[in-house]
Structures
1.
Amino acid sequence: MSNFKYDVAVIGLGYVGLPLAIQATSSNLKVYGYDIDENKISNYNLGKSTIEDISDKELKASLEKGLFLSSDPKYLSESETIVISVPTPLTDYQPDLSYVKAAAETIANNITKNQIIILESTTYPGTTVEVLIPVIEEISNLKAGVDFFVGYSPERIDPGNDTWNFKNTPKVISGINDESLSKIENFYEQIIDSVVRVSGTKEAEMVKLLENTYRHVNIALINELAILCNMLEIDIWEVVNAAKTKPFGFESFRPGPGVGGHCIPVDPNYLSFKTRQIGKPVRFVELAQEINNSMPSYVVSRLLEKMNLLEKPFKNSKILILGVAYKKDIGDVRESPAIGIIENLFERGVNVKYYDPFVDSILVNKKYVEKEDSFDNIDKYDLVLVHTAHTDFENFDFSKVSVPIFDATGSDHFKNAERI
Ligand SMILES: NC(=O)c1ccc[n+]([C@@H]2O[C@H](COP(=O)([O-])OP(=O)(O)OC[C@H]3O[C@@H](n4cnc5c(N)ncnc54)[C@H](O)[C@@H]3O)[C@@H](O)[C@H]2O)c1
C-alpha cells in the first residue's frame, strides 16, 4: 500500500485528460483532476461535461464515486502517479511546449519523492528527456529515475468513436529506466486492457507521430486523387468503395474538405521540427500539408463553379454550411477546414450561415459566424455545403430540399448532392 492519498492526478482535463480521469475512477482508483481553467473545473464539479465523449451522467457518477477536481495544484504532492495531458499546439508554425513546461514547473513545486510522472501530450521525440525532466530536476533538486520515475505514453483517444475507447485501445508505454517502465506498466494495467512496451521514451513519442503522419499523408493522397478524378470525370467514391473490397494490402481513406482537430494538422509539424534539427525535411509531410491545406479553397472553387452553372452570381449569394466541426458527431472546431472555407467565402462577399447542432459558435476573423438552429430555412439559400456529416443529419429528408447541395464528405445520406 502506498502512502499517497490519490492513486493518480491528471493535469489538463480536456479531450484526453477527462476521459482518463473518468476511466481511472471507474477502475476504482482514487483520482484527482487538476486544470488551470477554473471555469472548466466549476462546470465539471456541477456535473456539466464539455467533452462529447463524456456524458453529464458519467461525469456525475464519477464525482459521486470520489473523483476530485480542483484548480489548486497543491494536491499533486499527494498523488502517486501524475499524468500530463496539456495542449501541445503550434505557435507561429513552431511546436509550442509552453504548456508542458508550465505543467512541469507545477509538478516540480509540488513534488514528492517516488512519484511516477507520465507525459501523454503529443510531442516530438526527445521532449520527455530534453524538456520535461530538466525543468522538474532543476526546480526540485531531485533526480529522475532515482527520486521520481518518468515515462511517456501517447494518447490514442478518438473522439466520437463508439467502438474503440480509452479502455480497449492498446496503450504504448515507455520509461526512462526499467524501474520507471515497470511502475508505469503497473499503473496502466489497472485501467487499460492491454499495454505495449517500447524500449524508450523517444520511441514512444515517435509512435504517435507515425500514427498521425500516416493518416495525414494518406488523406492527402486520396484528396489529390479526388481532384484529379473530378478532372478526369471519374467517380472517386466508386473507385474507393471498389478498392476497399480488397481484403489485404489496402486501407481506405476518404476525400474531404481538409484536415482538422488538434492532431492531424498539428502533429506532423512536430516531426518536421525535429528532423530539421538534423538538416532533413520530412518530404511526405510537407507535400501532404500542401495538399490538405489547399482543400478548403478547392471546395470553394467547386461551389463557385456550381453557382456559375446555375447562372447565379457568387457575390451576395447565400450559402448554408452544414456541420463546421472538424469531424462528425463532435463539437470541436479547432483547425476545422470550415474556418478556411468560411474565410474564403467572406472574402468573396458570400453571405454564410451554418447549422451544426454540436457547435454553439464559431469565430472566423474574430467574428462570430451567424447560425441557423434547424433546417427550417434551408430552402432560402442558394447553395448548401455539407462540411461535416453528423449522424443527426440522417433524420432529415434532404431529397425534398429544392436547393443544390454540395457534399464535401461523400456521405451516403445526401444522395442527390454533387460530391467532392
Ligand atoms: N483531442 C484529441 O483527440 C487528442 C488525441 C490524442 C492526443 N492528443 C494530445 O493530448 C494533448 C491534450 O489535448 P486535448 O485535446 O485534451 O487538449 P484540450 O485543450 O482539450 O485540454 C487541455 C487542458 O489542459 C489545461 N491546461 C493547460 N495548461 C495547463 C497547466 N499548465 N496546468 C493544468 N492544466 C492545464 C487546459 O485548460 C485544458 O483544459 C495534446 O498534446 C494533444 O495533441 C489529443
2.
Amino acid sequence: MFAPEAAPAASGLTVVKPATERNETLGAVLSPSQANTFLNCSARWWFKHSAGLADPAGGSLVRGKAVHKLVEWWFRQRLAGATPEIESLGDIWDEIWEMQSADAQFAKDDDVDGLKKSGAKLSRMYLETVAPEIEPAGMEVKVAGEIGGVRVIGYVDLVDTQGTIHDLKTAAKTPSGIGSDYAFQLATYRQLLPGANGKAKLVTLVDTKTPKLVTTEYQVSAADQLATQNLYPRVREGIREGLYFPNRNSFLCSRKYCNFCDACTKEFGCSIE
Ligand code: SF4
C-alpha cells in the first residue's frame, strides 16, 4: 500500500508515504465481513485482502468455527430426514476440531484442551435446547447481488422455513445487544436472500463458569438497509483510493486478535500489546 521513502526518520525508523495510484481492480466483489473489516480497521483489510498476509485462526475463533460446523452437520442430517443422537456426536466433534485447528495459530495462553471441551459443551447446549425448535430450510446458503451499485456476496448460516435467519456465536462475556457490524450483515442478507423476512435470531453461547445461552431477536430496519446502500460504495471507493489507516482503538487491536501487529507497527509506528 505504501512506497518506502529513502530518508530515515530521526528516530531511525523508515518513513513511509501513501501510494498515490488508484487501483480500479480492488473491491470488485465485497462481502459483509470484508466491509465490516474495512470499517473497523482499514489497515487490517489491506494486510489481509490486498497484501495477502497470513491470517490463521486463534483459539477462540477455532472453537467458534468448530461449534458452527457441528451444528451445521446436525442440521444437514435433519434436512436429510435423520435424527442424530446428541449422545453420539463425540467422534464427529473430534474430527471437526482436528480440521478446524489444523492451520490454527494458538496463542501461548490459549488452553486448547479447555477450548475443545467447552466447545463440545456449548454445542450440546445449543443442540439440546435451541436446534429442535428450528425448521431448517437451508444451510450455508450463498447469496449474491448488488447493493449501492457494488457486487456483494455472502453465505447465510441457517435460514428457516419462515425466512428467519438463525445465527450462533460463542463468547466469553454476556452480549449487551446486536452490534452495528452484525446489523450490517443482516441488512445485507435481507436484500440478497430470496424469501428473507428481515427477522433474525442470534444465539450467543457464553462460556462463563456456568455456561449460558442468550437469545437476541432482531428486525432489520429501513435505516439498516440504507446504511448498506451508502457504505458499500464508500468502502469500495476507500479500498480503490488506497488510503488505509490503523485503528488502534479497535476492540480487535491486540496481539491476541490481530495477526498483523508486526506489519502494522513496522508501517505505522507505535507499539501494540
Ligand atoms: S494491529 Fe490494530 S491497527 Fe493494526 S491492522 Fe491490526 S487491528 Fe488494525
